[in-house]
# Entry
Amino acid sequence: MNPLKNKITLQEQEEILTVCIKKELPLSSALSQRGLTYDALRYRDYSDSVPQLEKNETLDEKQKLSASIPAVSFFSGAGGLDIGFEYAGFNNLVSIESNEVFCNTLKRNNSSKIVIGSPDYSGDIRNHNEIAELLRNIIGKGKPFEGVFHGGPPCQPFSIASNQRFSKASDNFKRQGFEDEEKGELLFDYLWYIKTFQPKVFLIENVAGITGCDTDGKIQSALCELSRLGYNILPPKIVNAAHYGVPQKRLRWLIIGSRAEKQIDFPAPNHDVTACYATFSRPLNGVENHLTREHSAESIARYMQLTYGSRDKLGRVDRLNPYLPAKTVIAGGTKGGGRSHLHPYSPRTVSVRECARLQTFPDSYVFTGSTARQFTQVGNAVPPLLAYKIAMQIRQAM
# Structure
């Protein structure tokens, strides 16, 4: 938290904003001339009280377990599931990802990581024969595979938030679900690999909204096929990541299937949700991906009027309430970055690193590409801490 004593006064702030607006000057330059940053600005409604909250759980403070169980990562994205499983002692033999920027991030953080994706391969799992042959060369031709498959097929066709970025008059406003030509059937492509290689355990992750799109029971029918192959499949479960130590409200739909002798259960949720206060109390010295946006004076003049949890309707951004979990970090579309929220103590949008902390990525994990693409990677990811807790349950059973 940035104490009020480190902020400029409301009077000085309003004088700066007034001059910038009248003379059409960039606020960033006016602040720089005074030796100030956007974090020296304040909201009109500002509390210096310190809540009595426990320190948040982070992967930064956990020791990675020895990599003793093989795993394959599908739809790897920026690596949210990969990180959680790696910390829980899984050896991710290969990551499969079609997006070039995401592949760059995976390799940037682990130069020895094997990635089926750009620039050498398409990484498109719809190409069954190509991807399956590459997989056989890495994990072996025998089946069943005595390891884990984990993956979260792209969720945009099923996401309410993703589609409501558009106006109600737009065809994109309605969720396309399984009718989405590009991504709607990727879940079933993933299930094809599970049937083909028969991993000992598999995990499927998606947005909670997928259940509303399965009007024909296609998912249940596909899961019945896997049951006939000997899998014990837990009923799909919708969890809120905020009940698992993640300082963010994020609803996820999960399925675990297993051929393990011991029953695999979902991790038990915490009694209380995790507030985001501690996330914004941590120092940011020396971390990467912490480039803050240079807002205009007009935007700051609006933002500074907001109370905790309220929304600036023009910019469609919300001031986070530090006493609650953050609102869901949003990935945004392919032509723009995620719509980040407003910092609880400084009237500016949060940075990629701050979003990554809300998602529980370790501070050492670096995102590549433009800032817009970095937001997309963070917003698309499974919170690594949630992945870790699921992976620990799987590890105990295996």
